[in-house]
Amino acid sequence: MSPVLGLILAGGLSRRMGGGDKPLKVLAGRTLLERVAERLGPQCGGRLALSANGDPERFRTVFSGSILPDTVPDNPGPLAGLLAGLEAAAEMGVTHVASVPGDAPFLPTDYVARLTAAGTSPIALAASGERRHFTSALWPVALRDDLRAWLTAGERRVGGFIERHGADVVSWPVEPVDPFLNLNAPEDLAAAEVLLTRAQ
After folding, report:
1. What Rg do the C-alpha atoms of the chain give, in angstroms?
2. For every residue of the chain, which 3-state class applies, written as one string?
3. CA of 62: how far to CAs of 10, 22, 23, 136, 139, in Å?
4. Could you read off the pLDDT of 28-66 as tens digits, one per residue?
5. Domain CATH for 146
6. pTM: predicted TM-score of the whole model, two decimal places
7. Distance CA 76, CA 61 (A)
8. How many structural domains comprise the chain?
């Protein structure tokens, strides 16, 4: 398997969750960030980074990997976080970045392996059931210059960038738990506590 950097996307303002950093919300005694990192880290040989703007110290007590701010202005969204990850990976000599949102605590343990084993398209995109998850994908570092140009031109859509290069879709079942379930509201955290017992 080629070297992979695991990139956790911290996300936006988390208004539906009551504000603040969603990855720092607590699920059954542990932050979402800790849970995602625990799932993703071993799949990437311990190479993990977090895409997050602002003071990085707020994550230090629960995350020991690199914390990457956007390298383009105006907070253009998850593609800017991906660009920072691709650029960091290039400096590390890593060939691919596996991105995941910071609020997906049920991430599959075969995530990186299955995406890496996908077909011949530049990008490997995760899906569950019939739903594609645009921020859960494996990206070649070679796309970084085109991604920077895409963002500089004012483009923001993750799906648009994926369509531009092509992707193989790798799907996981949604039972007993959707492995790409996002937690967007306080009631989602409560429901996830019940699901945790089912997933164990």
Report:
1. 16
2. CCCEEEEEECCCCCHHHCCCCHHHCEECCEEHHHHHHHHHHHHHCCCEEEECCCCHHHHCCCCCCEEECCCCCCCCCHHHHHHHHHHHHHHHCCCEEEEEECCCCCCCCCHHHHHHCCCCCCEEEEEECCEEEEEEEEEEHHHHHHHHHHHHCCCCCHHHHHHHHCEEEEEECCCCCCCCCCCCCHHHHHHHHHHHHHHC
3. 13, 13, 10, 22, 26
4. 899 999 999 999 999 999 999 999 999 999 999 999 999
5. 3.90.550.10
6. 0.93
7. 27
8. 1
Which residue do the tokens 């017992």 mark? 197
Condensed to tens digits (0 to 9), the pLDDT of residues 82-120 reads 999 999 999 999 999 999 999 999 999 999 999 999 989
| Residue 187, domain extent | 4-199
